[in-house]
Amino acid sequence: MTTPIAATQNSDRNTKVAKKPTRQKQLYKMLTRKSGVTIAQLQQTFGWQPHTARAAISAQRKAGRVVDRAETDKGSIYRIVEMQGNQ
């Protein structure tokens, strides 16, 4: 049986714990950076295989976001492009 004091202590403890951002939110944040993100960076950050990183980027496209890909000497850089009409 829980006493009112114990219930208060449990609720205080739960409110102080910060939630970790989901992988989708972390991915979105990386894709919206000015410098963009490479497949290698996604692999290192999330521990994904290259095909998993590409699938996650594809999922962003399917969600309606415009993802731009630019070729550089480091490889492909992906970034989400904000459309003029969406501002």
UniProtKB/TrEMBL annotation:
Residues 1-23 are annotated as: Disordered. It comes from the Bacteria. InterPro entries: DUF3489. Residues 1-12 have a biased composition (Polar residues). This is DUF3489 domain-containing protein. It comes from Ruegeria denitrificans.
